[in-house]
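WARN no homologs supplied; continuing
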Amino acid sequence: MDIAALAELNAARHERRAAILLTDIAGGAGRVILESHGETGELGDIVERAFRSGRSGLYALEGGEVFLNVHVPAPRIAVIGAVHISQALAGIAAIAGYDLRVIDPRTAFATPERFAGIDLAAEWPQDELAKRPLDAFTALVAVTHDPKIDDFPIAQALRTGCFYVGALGSRKTHAKRVDRLEAEGLSAAQIARIHAPIGLDIAAANPMEIAVAIMAEVIDAYRRRPIGAPASAAEAQAAGA
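OK structure emitted
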């Protein structure tokens, strides 16, 4: 493997960016394709499918065979709010193969007893996200119903380019949220990415059913995420401006 290509691949993996090492079978030459940059034509179609599936494999092109070694970061879920929905969502996310952490500064809710075995941070989101930032392979789920807690991580998720941003609340509640986010400088295109009311419309009536609806919507957003999206938080913010 070319040393420069290996260094580029390792850097992408360290930064939690999706990348493919493409190797020409006949010539042995390799190069790195980042999900944020995209490809065109026949190769573009194959690369897009590989990024979505996360599976490596051998492919026949008009000019010869190539092997795609696919590296896609594991998807994560950051839940804002240590509520009943979060308790249910934690178990469902684990079954679906998603890492999940719960963030809530309200220590009466964010207790080890209520979230045994769950990655739990009893801190303000701005403090926790400064230590473990959001990225394009993280879904943000805001369920506190408290703007003082929810608004900052929602804005941060939109600026970062999280593949999913969902917020609990009625349409009236969301309309007020939109006004606050606009005042914070978020664009209409960025705000339009918020799933609110949160979760697929399955007429969910209790926390477990709402959690199922949220998880289904997260999976749908992840599998249908745009390939060729901005690679960094700065690029994501610029794209939505």
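Residues 76-240 form a domain with the Rossmann fold fold (CATH 3.40.50.720).
OK
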